[in-house]
């Protein structure tokens, strides 16, 4: 395994290998073995051009638990603010001996460019690139931690070795701006789950008809008639909207009325169903406090699972990789 750029690149075997490796990592953590020597002497650079709390901290935690050295690089306060290009930033990181670069960027495709440009060295000691979220494109480790969480709750024996066949997942909200939705549609379908996107027509991307999932404009109909096993609420990304009224159509009030997850809608779900959100949440907009904090909510657990999944990704890219040597995972 060389890079982790997109959930769409993962085969079912690679996805299950990542999830099973994450299960092993989670087991070491729960046995109080906090630190493994696996990546001693390796350097992981966290290169963040966009804000992040969960992804940045969990990649840092994951790398440190594998004994790697970690360099945190934020565009704010760096020479990027003086106009330095992605290429020159990458050349600098390569000169400093990075073994892996975890990149979050506002531009869709930036991690792909880093991985395939040769700026990070292509022969001898290739640097692994892990996409930590690029524009509205992909967030592969988020979809892996989501699949890991779904498997733990809804597949017998915590799902080890298993795919997600037979499960139904509703992904609700601002699909248009969501790299989380795109990554999850790709990975959940690869793992055999059925997916329905629920969104106002104004927040669905052009071409969504060709995605491997169903779409609905009605959250009430989807919850009542389809009975999903998991409901994944998406953050309304107002910072990526432009135009009149902040580009937010329908209005926030109308959005919450038609697409917000609240107590009434929770009661429509099957008893075993779980409530998910990648975070950060807009409480009171796409999800009520009662739904976010309900016993069905696995939102905090998703964050914890992010560490195990990112440990697995770093491990397979930097120390493992026997199943897909030389290819991107
Ligand atoms: N889910 C997610 O990517 O959260 P952060 O933006 O806090 O990393």
Automatic annotation (TrEMBL):
Annotated keywords: Pyrimidine biosynthesis, Transferase
Protein name: Aspartate carbamoyltransferase
Keyword Phosphoprotein attributed: no
SUPFAM superfamilies linked: Aspartate/ornithine carbamoyltransferase
Native source species: Xylanimonas protaetiae
Enzyme Commission designation: 2.1.3.2
GO biological process terms held by the UniProt record: 'de novo' pyrimidine nucleobase biosynthetic process; 'de novo' UMP biosynthetic process; amino acid metabolic process
Domain Aspartate/ornithine carbamoyltransferase carbamoyl-P binding residue range list: 2-151
